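Researcher: Next entry: Methyltransferase family protein (Phreatobacter oligotrophus).
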Amino acid sequence: MVSNWTSRLVAALRGRVGSAPAPDSKDQKHGLDEYVTTYPGPQNAIDILKGWNQAFPAQYGVSAGSMALYNDPRIHWAIEKAGGVAGKRVLEVGPLEAWHTYMLEQHQPVLLDAVEANKLSFLRCLVVKEIVGLKIARFHLGDAQLWLEQRPERYDVVIASGVLYHMQDPIRFLRAIAARTDSLFLWTHYVDDVAMPPGDPRRGAFISPPEVVLAAGVEVKLYPRTYLGAWQNASFCGGMHDIHRWIEKESLIALLRALGLSEIEVSFDQTDHTYGPACCIFAKRPA
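Model: Predicted structure:
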């Protein structure tokens, strides 16, 4: 026999909970939003992360972004100038969506650290790693500046494509790299008053006159710039601070030389780039 106490408890619970609502037929059919109810596959992993910029090679049969950077001639050039990366220790700063990482891994470095600060980009890197089966690369979420300054490792080559011009303090970044490697590859935007004269619309994001800084005996002009709110978009792939600084190309080259990376080659120089002049630089310390 059910006790009076139990009866009162059941009645109280019924009163508190009330009658259960009728099942939502849509929920019953499609499941909860936190779950994927379609057949398991790589496209599902891509679709849960919005804002993809880069495409997958056709053989993977998936759809992501539009830029095909998995066969980037700039990275082929960097690998050539490094004398290959097979058996070498490589640091990639800002892997974005891992396609330069993918290219580097094909050449079998012994170590491939890839440091990404953007949370969504880091997760996209992990998705790419799983889909294409990267084995050597290790992705690390956080500030590459601190990675360079606080870890003792040296690298045979540092790859920093699309990174320098996003830095709040690009001089500090270059100093930290020069302390950890003898070979550096950059692809970066730069300031050039001839290619991008005053009044050029590409200067629209610059917010103040240049700051003149003396670094390693070199007078460097830094041009403060803002993203104009672009960071609010899921596909944003800029730096971690809204205010970042560009450098003039000649000052950049002079600074690299002063930091000991004095053997310098420049390629892929594109003065008419949509966002501003850009080029590749490979800088290494003399043997």
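Model: Note for the record: Strands lie at 89-93, 111-116, 137-141, 157-161, 183-189, 211-215, 218-225, 244-247, 263-270, 278-284.
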